[in-house]
Each structure stands twice: as C-alpha cells, then as structure tokens.
Amino acid sequence: MKNFFPLAALVAALLLSACTAQESFQNAENCVKVEVGMSEQQVRGIMGAPTGEDAAEGSGKTWSYLFGSATDTQPIRIQFDANGKVSSTTCAPEASGSERPTGN
C-alpha cells in the first residue's frame, strides 16, 4: 500500500502536464481567431474563461491565457477598451496553432 501513493502522484503529475499542453495548444489555435472590436462575450466564446485579468489604463482590462510548457510559459493577452471591446491581442510567437507545445 505504501507504493501506491508515489505512483498515484506520478500519474497525476503526468496527466496535469498533458492537460496543460493541450490547453496551451487550444489557446494558441484560438488566439488567432480573436479580432479587434469583438466583445468580451465573443472572446469568451472563442477562448473560454481567462486565466488572469488585470485592469488597464483608461478603464480597460487585459485578459491572460496560458501558453507554453510547464517550464516555459508566456501568456496570451487580450486587451479590451473601456467599452469592453477588443483593442489589441498579443499572441505568443508560436500561437499559430501549427505547433503543439511539448508539455515538458
């Protein structure tokens, strides 16, 4: 029974990194679909719930999404203006959806 817990922890860690890599790939694919002028609701429909949210200048806000591997992350950022419309996007350099993050 003692050996079960380390094995379970290892399996959980492997599954978590696989989920993170898959989510990261989906965020990369979806990021390029977000266009200036879209509403928050439209972005949420494409990208899902943001990983983080920060206030921006002029009553706007910035949503962040995970991109990268467990050891190298760079957020995808969607900036909204004071009216809740996309003013700009910052997709990770590899966020074309053509390459899957390795999840390492």
TrEMBL record:
<feature type="signal peptide">
    <location>
        <begin position="1"/>
        <end position="21"/>
    </location>
</feature>
<keyword id="KW-0472">Membrane</keyword>
<dbReference type="InterPro" id="IPR037873">
    <property type="entry name" value="BamE-like"/>
</dbReference>
<dbReference type="Pfam" id="PF04355">
    <property type="entry name" value="BamE"/>
</dbReference>
<protein>
    <submittedName>
        <fullName>Outer membrane protein assembly factor BamE</fullName>
    </submittedName>
</protein>
<keyword id="KW-0732">Signal</keyword>
<feature type="domain" description="Outer membrane protein assembly factor BamE">
    <location>
        <begin position="27"/>
        <end position="88"/>
    </location>
</feature>
<dbReference type="InterPro" id="IPR007450">
    <property type="entry name" value="BamE_dom"/>
</dbReference>
